[in-house]
Design brief:
By secondary structure, the chain is mostly helical. It folds into two domains: 127 residues, Farnesyl Diphosphate Synthase (Orthogonal Bundle); 41 residues.
Length: 170
């Protein structure tokens, strides 16, 4: 198996699935749907969903049953990037060589697009009917995980952080 071919094949599968799972840009509110798609399809390697698919296959999984989980992970990742780029966080102007979402659609729409992706991710996860999986992902992105790390990053700004604080942030 060629790793590059595997990654490209899985990325195409994920892109198609994301396109199916995301609301149409014709659905109201149109600007919100456009903003969501702008960020989700802004590029990226899709490593998180590819790792989900590879893990599924490694334990004998076959077919598309993993796609809702894989796409939910990508939606969570994208929402975290949207929020991280906001002026109240890192205030980034560019993401993957393109203007960040809040620069194109405004801060309010960016917050709502991130929130919508977060909600849609958990809607997809709920279709797995696996409460343990849903609970684990919620915990890992909550105050003990991704969101907590972002909060610690904000608190550490301009200060010398300890190794344990840097590890928690990361």
């Amino acid at each position: 198996m060629n790793l590059e071919d595997y990654l490209n094949t899985k990325k195409r599968i994920i892109e198609k699935a994301l396109n199916r799972y995301l609301p149409s840009v014709k659905k109201s509110p149109v600007a919100l749907q456009q903003a969501i798609r702008y960020s989700v399809f802004a590029g990226g390697k899709r490593l998180r969903p590819i790792l989900a698919i590879a893990s599924f296959e490694l334990v004998g999984g076959k077919g598309d049953a993993i796609l809702p989980v894989a796409c939910a992970l990508e939606m969570i990742h994208t929402y975290s990037l949207i929020h991280d780029d906001l002026p109240c966080m890192d205030d980034d102007d560019l993401r993957r060589g393109k203007p960040t979402l809040h620069k194109v659609f405004g801060d309010g729409v960016a917050v709502l697009a991130g929130d919508a992706l977060h909600a849609l991710a958990f809607e997809l996860l709920s279709k797995t009917q696996n409460p343990k999986l849903i609970s684990e992902i919620a915990r890992e992105i909550g105050t003990d995980g991704m969101v907590g790390g972002q909060a610690a990053d904000l608190q550490a700004e301009g200060k010398k952080a300890s190794i344990s604080e840097v590890n928690f942030i990361h």
